[in-house]
Amino acid sequence: MKIFQCGHCNASVFFENNSCDTCGHLTGYRATDHKMLTFAPDIAALISDREHTEYKYCKNKEYNVCNWVLEKHDPEDYCSACQLNRTIPNLSNTASDNFENWQHLEIAKHRLVYQLQKIGLPLRSKLQDEDGLCFDFVSKKDNPSLMTGHANGVVTILIREGNSVLREQARKDMVEPYRTLVGHLRHEVGHYYWERLVRHHPKVLKDFRAIFGNEETDYSEALQTYYKTGAPKDWQDSYISEYATSHPWEDWAETWAHYLHIMEMVETAYFFRVNVNPKFKTRALKTKVSFDPYTKKNFDAILHKCVPLSLAVNSINRAMGIPDVYPFVISPPIIEKLKFIHQLLLYKRK
Ligand SMILES: [Zn+2]
Ligand SMILES: [Zn+2]
Ligand SMILES: [Zn+2]
Description:
alpha+beta; 13 strands; 39% helix; globular; binds zinc ion
């Protein structure tokens, strides 16, 4: 994630800010060029500090779940991230934690959309385009058969995942090292982009099968077997997670999510100019993040930054008694899978 600069006082502002902490000017994210705009707080119209152009907030600002802006005369009421919402939780039930869970989901979704737009991936709302993407944030209470997943451009997320206690319980039950909202979203959207970028492209599909295996293997049978027998003992040699062993589609979605994790870690480090230079000179632990990974062709260069970075951040987390930021091992076969995704996205980039 980038860090941004206030157009009024030049202080740093952050992605979820509603105003500048230093001067109090209002902030609004403009997705078309990934910039944060600022506005004088004491006038009714939203006139940007730098360009003196009039904007309006996304309609979801009313619920305090979005700080994105659209041009004043844009016919849309919702920003490009909120246009993707097909179902949001029932907010009339004030006794439930639906609203709070939705807020958490929106933070994760906006970060996801930021990243997809930064990569330059096609991103249209399914409400406007049959091949597009949409989100259903739903409760099992409305329909017990609902599950988190993806089908046909619809990403369904159970809103209970927004509750950190229930999510941690699910993580323990599933024996997962990591379970987050942004992780769910990155995984599920991976299935959508497999459909868009791989399925109907014979050359890409052939290369996909050579690396991830043949996805024509019966999916529900494969999942049943996985839930019965678990992952093979040596899964870490070739897979990023146990679940990735279940079927090539899941391997793709898990690896895709990790690709997005890595890009966001390195981009954030770049914007903070993180320099890891340990006191005891260990070459493998030394790094300076001097480039934006989204502009980098060479994936090895990106990955090399990741190891020292995650070791440094893991150590800070351990100092605070919280879990490691990146509790995964990336083996050479996983690097090949990540590179496949990187190459594919480089090609797709605008
Ligand atoms: Zn300011
Ligand atoms: Zn919005
Ligand atoms: Zn999946």
